[in-house]
């Protein structure tokens, strides 16, 4: 039996019970009230007393019906509000999905400005939906690995960069992606796996990561030469085989879970 059918049956039973009380209750109430002296009442007095009792019973039934109607209306308002909230949440999720798909599509565009716009669109999505943050981090990590591999593929332009250009100047989209994905790494999360972001074998020379949370980020084999890593959180960070020449690690936070290359003395880098 459905919930609506059950409620209908209960209402019918209550109505039938109320009329039964109105019809058969007054004589019982009168006998209980007057006891043996009820037989001393004249026919007119008895009828008047029964009518008064019935009037009070009907008033009580009327009050009950009003309260029941108010309660039913309140429950209906609650259900309508929940339905409206669910519909609004469904629409929000649909819009997020559409925006996410559009942003991912734009990441492959030839125009760097459009790619940067897509990166910041993903940042807004991560801001609006906590559930989407892990996906945004993974997507931007993949983007950086694809567009900034280290070492560069054969035939790529000279990578020595003698002018020491900062990452934001030579690859603005990579710096933007790096800034966004590290913004959403949360060291209080209970991850199902060790890794938060995989940036292994990426070219991040002269990148700016100052003050970022790099908790459990994989930089193995990456090029972080000249990068600003000051005040970063390096707990659990994989820095094995990572190029750190000229990198600034002043005030960086590392512990026993930080993975360093063989022969590297962290004390000399973190001072």
UniProtKB/TrEMBL annotation:
| Keywords recorded for this protein, A-Z | Membrane, Transmembrane, Transmembrane helix
Q: One of this protein's Pfam families, by short name?
A: Pentapeptide
Q: What is this protein called?
A: Pentapeptide repeat protein
Q: Where are the transmembrane segments?
A: 55-74
What the entry lists under InterPro entries is as follows: 5peptide_repeat
Is Membrane found in the keyword set? yes
Q: What organism does the UniProt record list as the source? A: Virgisporangium ochraceum
């Amino acid at each position: 039996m459905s919930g609506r059918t059950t409620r209908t049956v209960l209402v019918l039973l209550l109505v039938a019970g109320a009329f039964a009380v109105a019809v058969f209750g007054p004589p019982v109430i009168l006998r209980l009230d007057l006891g043996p002296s009820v037989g001393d009442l004249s026919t007119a007095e008895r009828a008047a007393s029964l009518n008064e009792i019935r009037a009070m019973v009907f008033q009580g039934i009327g009050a009950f019906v009003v309260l029941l109607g108010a309660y039913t209306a309140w429950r209906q308002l609650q259900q309508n509000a929940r339905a409206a909230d669910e519909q609004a949440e469904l629409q929000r999720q649909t819009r997020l999905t559409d925006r996410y798909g559009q942003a991912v599509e734009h990441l492959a565009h030839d125009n760097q400005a459009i790619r940067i716009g897509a990166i910041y669109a993903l940042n807004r999505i991560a801001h609006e939906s906590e559930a989407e943050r892990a996906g945004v981090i993974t997507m931007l990590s993949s983007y950086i690995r694809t567009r900034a591999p280290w070492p560069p593929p054969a035939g790529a332009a000279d990578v020595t960069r003698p002018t020491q250009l900062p990452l934001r100047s030579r690859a603005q989209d990579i710096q933007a992606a790096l800034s966004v994905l590290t913004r959403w790494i949360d060291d209080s999360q209970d991850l199902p796996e060790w890794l938060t972001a995989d940036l292994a074998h990426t070219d991040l020379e002269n990148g700016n990561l100052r003050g970022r949370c790099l908790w459990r980020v994989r930089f193995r084999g990456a090029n972080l030469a000249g990068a600003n890593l000051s005040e970063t959180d390096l707990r659990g960070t994989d820095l094995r085989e990572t190029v750190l020449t000229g990198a600034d690690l002043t005030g960086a936070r590392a512990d026993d879970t930080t993975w360093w290359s063989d022969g590297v003395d962290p004390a000399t880098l973190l001072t």
